[in-house]
Amino acid sequence: MEEELKLQIMDDTAPVWKRIAEHPLLAISKQPPLQLHAFYFDSRDSALQRARLAYRVRREEDAWIATLKAGGQSAGGLHQRPEWNVPVDSNQPDLSVFTDSEAAAMLAPFMELDLQVILETRFERHESRVTHTDGSEIIVALDRGEILARGLSEPIREVELELAQGNAAAVLEMGAALCQNLPLIPDQESKLFRGLRLAGLISDEKPRDTAWPLHRRENAGNAFSQILTWQLQQIIHDTRTHWAKTSAESFHGLRKSVRSLRATLRFCRVLDPDNLLQPFRLALQEWFHQQNQKRDYEALLGYWTEIAATMTLDPAPLQGILSAQAPQQAEQLPQLVAILLKLWASLIRHPLTHVKNLQDFSESQLHREDRKLMAAGKMLLDHPEALHSLRIRIKNTRYVMITLAPLWPGKDSKALLKLLATLQGIAGEIHDADMAGQYLSPLASNRKAGVAFQAGALLGFLQGREARQRKKFQKFWLRLESTARPWDS
């Protein structure tokens, strides 16, 4: 079984490559790199690909190695799949060289296939073997070259950490340590997958999963260990999406994913009696809060674009000022990934435990959280400033319910989720009005009349709407109080 973490290099400039090659954790020697040239084979109708089999023959210096890989899984950059390697005499395709009984059985239906080269890879590899602190052995590969298919090419710039023996958590922990200091990001796409896409034989990157399958009678600890692992893998997917195509929408999606993971971590604290997950809760909270200013400016720009269009104004003066003042630094994506990989490793080493099954635990915990939510809502009548903390509770409840909704497929959960989403949206707009003052008030006295007018118009609009939104919030809150809870039925 092959288990490896692929890390794509986000910045391929010479100084960064040198930093990576000389990083002490990788222990890359000064020896000349290996020269590798691989040929991937399949039939014209992609029979092996449809059977989730990958067959290649690769020249490694003076030797030829045939490799068969079977369908496994790839999530969050960690690739796990059965693999067989056999020395051969040339790069001519021959499936009969795989004599292992399991491999031979998989290949039996394909022995008469007319195989042809579908893509190639040419790259140099710096390799080392390191021992993790827990004794696990990890093969390190630093690869640079290209994928070739149908006259097209795509660069290879990656670090591979393959588990030779030991615990898969060691690979994740080593990856986390590298991402903390280097511009690396997990890559769930293999060289073969990228080559197939380059050749037009498959569609683009697979979409993120939409839900983790829940089993009501599964042990709650085991279930939440899997839910948390799935959620952090989705964040890694969203991190790659944002890095590849940076936009306000992709950044918003990434923040939502992180918020959902934070809500689940908070919800299942009782499953972590030794408080091993607390450092990750705090680290994710810090990363999230570091992005708040960027989010605030993007919200203001969105509001102003909408309002300027309604008022038939040229948005440029205020738009330019807000864009210039918005934080320009990167969102610290490798640092976020490092937190996630360490959390993943911790869940492997210390799975959560509990005596209850998933449904019983979730319902009792939601009942408790709901009482706290209702109590926080009652405080709002006498303490309007408490809306911010109530908004956070609403968010946490909603995100947890989205994750656990398959436990209650009836209409009650949908009605409750819809109300929570409405209240979250209203509370968010009230928060934006409160937040806008600190950014727009100084601009309202700007010496440039256009900027001052537009800042005042935007601030006036947001603050004028706040009173109406607070009344609207109260109306929907009363509906929430009387809405059935699926965990009470």
Give the tags.
15 helices, 19% strand, CYTH_domain, CHAD domain-containing protein, eleven-stranded antiparallel sheet, CYTH-like_dom_sf, 51% helix, 489 residues, globular, CHAD_dom_sf, 11 strands, alpha+beta
Overview of the molecule:
The chain has 489 residues and is α+β, with helices and mostly antiparallel strands. It is built from 15 helices and eleven strands. The chain has helices at 14-21, 47-50, 101-107, 168-181, 191-198, 220-244, 248-267, 278-290, 292-310, 316-325, 333-349, 358-379, 387-404, 411-440, 449-482; strands at residues 2-9, 34-42, 53-60, 63-70, 73-75, 78-81, 83-88, 116-131, 137-149, 152-165, 184-186. Strands 1, 2, 3, 4, 5, 6, 7, 8, 9, 10 and 11 form an eleven-stranded antiparallel β-sheet that branches. It is globular.
Mean pLDDT metric:
92
Q: Helix- and strand-based class? A: alpha+beta
| Alpha-carbon Rg, integer | 27 Å
Poorly predicted segments: none
First-residue to last-residue Cα separation: 46 Å
Report the total helices.
15
List the quaternary state of the chains: single chain
Which descriptor suits the 3D outline?
globular
Query: Major sheet: size, sense and barrel closure?
Result: 11 strands, antiparallel
* Estimated share of beta-strand residues: 15-25%
Task: Count the E strands.
Answer: 11
Q: Tell me the series of helices and strands, N- to C-terminal.
A: EHEHEEEEEHEEEHEHHHHHHHHHHH
Share of helix, binned? 40-55%
